[in-house]
């Protein structure tokens, strides 16, 4: 499984990690234990797969590219790892991760060097499985990591920040330069750790409503809340919520967005059809 044996394919957004120092830093950050249920998304040429196999009793990987699946199987057979390395040839965006759960005491630890073009939809797909996930460690475009972990009053704070932080604690671990990959991408990357909350600090009554309201607010982020949420809230509603309608969406915390969405949900339920 050497880099020159596989031509990176643009349709899969393939950039293979090759820097051993970065690889070891990632493994150290994950700190896998022998009995951990580790799931690697997009193992590629096995840069993380091989060192992970040294730490865990069993490793499951999800890979879409048939050529890479063949190479992984050849490697597994040659090293007599067929019982230790479980390969799923599948689209990670459509994969049912609940099928990997064996019991409630063994939550999944998901890792991956994710293609930039599917990172956001894949993470949102994984949020559906938060109850069975212990943590997630991903290599992402640095700009995306900034948006996920951003706090209120920062220009990178937006809908993605609110929705991801509602479900998970997000921690940026370290930056990875382009030369750590083959081929080298045009942007820097970063490792992020996402740990699902045991239970939301501020429970949403309707996640889709929270997504809808947050999207409406940030679609017009330069406008005040009174303008961006005018289809949902009137002046009296803002007074009830004790929220200044003159502020902009990036000034609201995650809990305030949840409170607004819950208020709107209750209001809609009470309104006559």
Count of DSSP H/I helices: 10
Which CATH architecture of the largest domain? 3-Layer(aba) Sandwich
Quaternary: single chain
Topology-level CATH name of the largest domain:
Rossmann fold
Overall outline: elongated
Task: Tell me the major beta sheet.
Answer: 7 strands, mixed
Low-confidence stretches: 8-13
Distance between the termini: 61 Å
CATH level-4 homologous superfamily of the largest domain: Vaccinia Virus protein VP39
Strand line-up in the sheet with most strands: 4-3-2-5-6-9-7
Structural class estimated from helices and strands? alpha/beta
Number of strands: 9
Mean pLDDT: 92
How much strand? 15-25%
Q: Write down the CATH class of the largest domain.
A: Alpha Beta
Indicate the radius of gyration in whole angstroms: 21 Å
Helix-strand string = EHEHEHEEHEHHEEEHHHH
The share of residues in helices is: 25-40%
Number of domains: 2
Report a brief summary of the structure.
With 273 residues, the protein is α/β, with parallel strands linked by helices. It has helices at residues 20-30, 49-53, 66-78, 119-127, 142-149, 159-167, 207-219, 225-228, 235-241, 254-270, and strands at residues 16-17, 37-41, 59-63, 85-89, 108-113, 133-141, 168-176, 181-182, 189-196. It has two domains: 3-196, Vaccinia Virus protein VP39 (Rossmann fold, 3-Layer(aba) Sandwich); 207-270, rRNA adenine dimethylase, C-terminal domain (Helicase, Ruva Protein, domain 3), CATH 1.10.8.
Characterise this structure.
There is one protein chain. Helices cover 35% and strands 19% of the residues. The termini are far apart. It has ten helices and nine strands. It has helices at 20-30, 49-53, 66-78, 119-127, 142-149, 159-167, 207-219, 225-228, 235-241, 254-270, and strands at residues 16-17, 37-41, 59-63, 85-89, 108-113, 133-141, 168-176, 181-182, 189-196. Strands 4-3-2-5-6-9-7 form a seven-stranded mixed beta sheet. A two-stranded antiparallel ribbon has the order 1-8. The radius of gyration is 21 Å and the shape is elongated. The protein has 273 residues and is of the alpha/beta class. Helix 7 (207-219) crosses helix 10 (254-270). It folds into two domains: 3-196, Vaccinia Virus protein VP39 (Rossmann fold, 3-Layer(aba) Sandwich); 207-270, Helicase, Ruva Protein, domain 3. The longest helix is centred in the last third of the chain and has 17 residues, at 254-270.
């Amino acid at each position: 499984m050497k880099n020159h044996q596989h031509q990176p394919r643009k349709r899969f957004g393939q950039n293979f990690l090759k820097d051993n120092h970065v690889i070891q830093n990632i493994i150290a950050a994950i700190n896998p234990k022998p009995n951990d249920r580790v799931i690697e998304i997009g193992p590629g040429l096995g840069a993380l797969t091989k060192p992970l196999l040294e730490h865990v009793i069993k490793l499951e990987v999800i890979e879409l590219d048939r050529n890479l699946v063949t190479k992984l199987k050849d490697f597994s057979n040659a090293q007599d790892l067929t019982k230790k390395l479980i390969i799923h040839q599948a689209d990670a965006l459509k994969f049912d991760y609940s099928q990997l759960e064996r019991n409630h005491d063994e939550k999944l630890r998901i890792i991956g060097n994710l293609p930039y073009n599917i990172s956001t939809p894949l993470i949102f797909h994984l949020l559906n499985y938060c109850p069975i996930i212990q943590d997630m460690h991903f290599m992402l475009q640095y700009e995306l990591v900034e948006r996920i972990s951003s706090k209120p009053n920062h220009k990178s704070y937006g809908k993605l920040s609110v929705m991801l932080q509602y479900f998970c604690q997000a921690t940026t671990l370290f930056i990875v330069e382009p030369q750590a990959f083959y081929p080298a991408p045009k942007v820097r990357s970063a490792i992020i750790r996402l740990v699902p909350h045991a239970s939301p600090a501020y429970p949403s009554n309707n996640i889709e409503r929270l997504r809808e309201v947050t999207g409406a607010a940030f679609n017009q982020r330069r406008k005040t809340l009174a303008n961006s949420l005018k289809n949902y809230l009137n002046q009296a509603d803002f007074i009830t919520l004790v929220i200044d309608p003159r502020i902009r969406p990036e000034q609201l915390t995650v809990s305030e967005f949840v409170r607004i969405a819950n208020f709107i949900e209750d209001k809609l339920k009470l309104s006559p059809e």
